[in-house]
Amino acid sequence: MSDTEAEQAEQVAEQPAEKANPHAEAVLKLAAAMLRFTLIGTTVVAAVAALLCAVLVGVTGLWGSLVGSAIAIGSALVTILMMRKTAALPPSFVMVAALGGYAIKIMLIFGVMTALRGVGALDVKSLGFTMLVVIMVGALAEFQAFRRTKLPTLIIESE
């Protein structure tokens, strides 16, 4: 090993290691748990809804249910992606991104539902009810993931 290589190795060893970001670690851990819980819960409910709509309404009910499920599951996955992308940012920005993301998602969902209303191959009620149920199950899955994931949290009790 040459002298310059030895000097460079000493300089690297002397530099402090990058500190781990505990907030980012917690957000990424929660996002992983949310992904697992959300995919399991929403796919099961989406399959049941598709079967139920197909039996009750027919082919248009099946297609409406499948499209509604795809939109709802995609919406839930966007939330998790947004968490992963903003995890390293300050906590206040993560909260702003989450709230802004929810507002944008709601507007987009209403826009998509309005646009799909006139499509004859889809039963609008099957699409709407399936979306509603899958979104609610996705939200419950996210809540369960938060409750079951061991994360440091601060609870302040007020009088």
Report the uncertain regions.
none
User: What are the secondary-structure elements, in order, as H or E?
Assistant: HHHHH
| Helix/sheet category | mainly alpha
The major beta sheet can be summarized as: none
Oligomer state equals single chain
Mean pLDDT: 85
Distance between the termini: 67 Å
Report the radius of gyration as a whole number of Å.
Answer: 22 Å
Number of helices: 5
Amount of beta strand = under 5%
Shape: elongated
Instruction: Tally the beta strands.
Output: 0
Query: What proportion of the residues is helical, as a percent range?
Result: over 70%
Walkthrough of the structure:
The protein has 159 residues and is mainly alpha-helical. Helices cover 79% and strands 0% of the residues. The chain contains 5 helices and no strands. α2 packs antiparallel against α3 and α2 packs antiparallel against α5. It is elongated, with a radius of gyration of 22 Å. It starts with a helix and ends in an 11-residue tail after the last helix.
Summarize this structure briefly.
The chain is an all-alpha fold and 159 residues long. It has helices at 3-14, 22-56, 59-86, 91-116, 124-148. The model has no long low-confidence stretch (mean pLDDT 85).
Keywords:
mainly alpha, single chain, 5 helices, 159 residues
SSE arrangement:
Elements: H1 3-14, H2 22-56, H3 59-86, H4 91-116, H5 124-148
